[in-house]
Amino acid sequence: MKNKKLTVKIMIDIGMTACLLLLMPYSLLGETLHEWIGMAMFVLFIAHHILNRKWLATVAKGKYTLFRGVQTALAMIMFILMIGSMISGILLSDHIFGMVRIEGSYMMARQVHMFCAYWGLIIMSLHLGMHWNMAVIMVGRLFKQPSAVRKWIARAIAVILAVYGVYAFIKRQIGDYLLMKMHFVFYDYTESVLFFMADYLAVMILIAFIGYYAGLLMKKYKTR
Questions:
Q1: For helices 193-222 and 132-140, what crossing angle results, to 10°?
Q2: Cβ proximity of 222 and 66 under 8 Å
Q3: Is 185 strand, coil or helix?
Q4: What ranges do the domains of the chain cover?
Q5: How far apart, in Å, are the Cα atoms of 106 and each of 14, 32, 36, 96, 102?
Q6: How many C-alpha atoms does 186 have within 13 Å on its Cβ side?
Q7: Can you state the angle between helices 193-222 and 2-23, rounded to 10 degrees?
Q8: Over the chain, what is the mean pLDDT?
Q9: pLDDT in tens, 134-173
Q10: How many other CB atoms are found less than 10 A from the CB of residue 120?
């Protein structure tokens, strides 16, 4: 039962990650689809917190290590970003919530939505990276015996994707969006949406890679 619940949690996290990735090519997929994917993200977000309600109940209890403190801070920031993204998304909606209108709120809602989307990409990727051990354990159970060769191949692939993620981060000017130097996302409509999403996936892998190894260092710090 415990393993099934863990599997469901991981599947929901994968679903949220997929939704976040699909939300980035906004104009390339169309407004209507963007809004429905946003709704799916919101439903998965609620399900995620319901399944993790025991963790939420222990936030104010127990001793805080560096790892736990950063992990909790990331979860809280992600919660705020998600709420900001949902509220601003509703105000910007032309389809699902088209009847909701607050005069003079459009530009502010647009900037908030963009800020939450890009920082959400970073924070969620860090969050996933710091929890990646769970995925590693589950994948390890698929094999009867551990393999050093398999481990190093997986690490090599992760490094290659992370290196490409640095290139994609610069190419897509994600740093400028995070710092709000650019207030509009510019799309090349001649580009395949698959190439666009591949670059953003590589950026997510890069940030998760950083989160994973930063988490390992934090756990070592605890033992000193």
A1: 100
A2: yes
A3: coil
A4: 1-221
A5: 31, 18, 20, 16, 8
A6: 6
A7: 130
A8: 86
A9: 666 665 666 667 777 777 888 899 899 999 999 999 999 9
A10: 20
Q: What are the backbone dihedrals phi and psi of residue 65, each rounded to the nearest 5 degrees, phi first?
A: -90, 175
Query: Tokens 């509220």 — which residue?
Result: 87
Closest among 171, 177, 156, 155 to 203, alpha carbons compared = 171
Q: What is the DSSP string of 80-99?
A: HHHHHHHHHHHHH-SSTTTT
pLDDT computed for residue 198 by the predictor: 94
pLDDT of amino acid 58: 85
Q: What's the confidence (pLDDT) of residue 139?
A: 59
Q: Report CA 89 to chain centroid distance, whole Å.
A: 17
Q: Is 104 left (phi over 0), alpha (psi -120 to 50) or beta?
A: left
pLDDT of residue 29: 86
Residue reference for tokens 């909606």: 93
Query: What's the start-to-end Cα distance of the chain, in Å?
Result: 36
